[in-house]
Amino acid sequence: MIPIRTSERKAEVAWFSALCSDDYEFLGVPEGGLRSSYENCGNIVRLADSHGFQNILLPSGWIAGQDALTFAAAMAPQTQQINQLVALRMGEVWPPMLARAIATVDHIAQGRLCINIISSDLPGLKESNEIRYNRSSEIIQILQQMWRADGPFEWKGSFYNFSLPSTEPAQPYQQNGGPLLYFGGISPAAQDLCAKHCDVFLMWPETEDCILATMLSLSQQAASYGRQIDFGFRSHVIVRETEKEARAAAERLISKLDLAKGQEIKNRSQDSQSAGVLRQDELRSKSKDLYIEDHLWSGVGLARSGCGSAIVGDPDQVLAKLNRYMDMGMRAFILSGYPHATECDWFARYVLPRIPTCRLNELQCRLVPRPVTPLTTAVRR
User: Are 330 and 233 in contact, with CB atoms under 8 Å apart?
Assistant: First the structure.
């Protein structure tokens, strides 16, 4: 049994909005109506909200599209119940101002905000894993301490040194200590970072034995720091009324893909050479007909860095696959499909109502309370 933070057998089911030029009818073939415009990305968020998804991932990258945190601030008043999981690359913003910016959006969203910690290379800069993850660790500690602190704040570290008269500008709406932190990465440095600081460890599609081994290992690492974490699965999905139709939709998706163009698209991403991407590439190279195991199709990775596989099948088959992950200890699913709005409809129609759902930040408040930082009168106004 894998020790997890959320013991109830319920999952937070999230969708994905294509802020970074990642929406297609045919993979690798851009279409004007599906570009990463404010209109298209906003429509995806509002659709996922109306369908009852509990969260939505807003990715980040140096690619034409929307800035994730700015976009989240704009979308928060337009949604009714959905959380926004904002991807933020550590080191892009001076930490005190980042803490303040996150707190601002958290207030606009009335607590419906989560953060996906990113530690890949900054745009235009190559650094070692050691530097990137050590800097991320320092920033996360600054953020969490500023969100919880009351009064003056001083930090002396390897990357940042500063002294502030007050942390009041950084006080979040969420008085349990700030937004939940999600994180993904399979290198030793990445896993250690999550074990020390984060709440939800996200994994890209791999074979079930590989996933289980990672979950067991990371649980032990977290326990060595006196912590428990939740686990999440980031995947594409293609669900249709029959398996034959689902497999046909998968084949149609890559039917116009030029492989050289696909590799060019992958290389645009800051994480295109990460350990996780390389592992997915290796699994795909060993697969038969692009299926790395039953109902897990790796064709998306022909033209996409990051998450490169999709769960493919009829509603019962897709649900059965998700149930297997839940039985392993998964408590968060971040799903997507192409086009994102269309596949959102399919999944919401056939599968979402059959999954026992929760919201991880609400469970965290109940199960693992954090210190409460009193708000001043000025902040309450």
Answer: yes
